[in-house]
Predict the 3D structure of the following.
Amino acid sequence: MLGNEMPSSEITKKRKEFVVMIDPGHGGSDTGTPGTRRYKTTEKDIALDVSLALGKKLAKLPNVKVIYTRTKDTYPTLNQRAVMTNKKKADLFISIHCNAQPGKNGKKFGSTAYGAETFVLGLSNNKTNLEVAKRENSVIFLEDNYEEVYEGFDPNSPESLISLIILQEEYLDQSIEIASYIQKEFKVTAKRRDRGVKQAGFWVLSKTYMPSVLVELGFLTHRKEEDFLNSKRGKKIMTQSLYNAVKKYIDLHSKSITIITENDIDTNDLEIEVDNTETKASKIYKGVTFKVQLSASSKKIATKPYNFKGLDQISREKSGNIFRYFYGETSDYEEIKRFKEVAKRKGYTDCYVVAFKNGKKVPLREVLN
Ligand SMILES: [Zn+2]
């Protein structure tokens, strides 16, 4: 025994488990799109194959836990999927689907559209995006008591989600981030036509409280794309692309937790998250402005305390169609960490520190190194 030569406590850092919820779209009696009907398989089968293959690969990563809303040909309702995901405290929600082009002149489907796209929740005035959301939401009609469960939501009018969309806005930035990694992989690794990151009112995305995306792997109403997505090679390439994107996201977002082992206590180790609020030190970075990002939104909100859970010193910045909202402003990194703790206690649990140099956002890691 080393006895009193031991320090009274030891601090080690380890990565917190990152939970990915994979949601294979449709299932059971809800087949999803049948595509051109040249195949026995439909959207639900391809979604399940790719989902399980993706999960299998991700589960091999250290500190990553994969869960699914379904692993067989069953149909959990959209509401059950969302409830399940929230209960498991997933860090990321990925719903996997295949697309169908609505037909013109009374025809059920068209056959010219192709390519992969990824959706995040939002309001859309774009007709094509609305059609996709309508189709994916329409499974709600298959449920007997849908009016009760979906609280007046009309699958034919995704705009009726508006009140729910506000709840997801806190995660919009990160949802767009993972969506753009996915689209980049689809384009570069899978060589698919990149239809881009889009926003529309998907019910299942509106009820999950974490960054959430809905992936449309491609159009089963397009012969060539349907052949590709039904082939072993096609599924493998799409799986690999999704894996690369999710892995990149996890690498950048997995949180580390600090474990303080009290040697005086011979029972279990204590696991606590470090609280920086007591630190009085300051660490000034000249020419750098730190802020705490609270949320991102497609809506312009007044920077008043009543809109931000009582916080003052709120600033707003517009980039593209998105407004970002920040709390605090300082060149002192220690100080901004205290701001962050305050914001967290106010309920902005996913807020994070961002850095600006000459008015431009720069990666925090770059500044701190
Ligand atoms: Zn679908």
Q: What stands out?
A: The two ends are 39 Å apart (CA to CA). The mean pLDDT is 85. The longest helix spans residues 232-253.
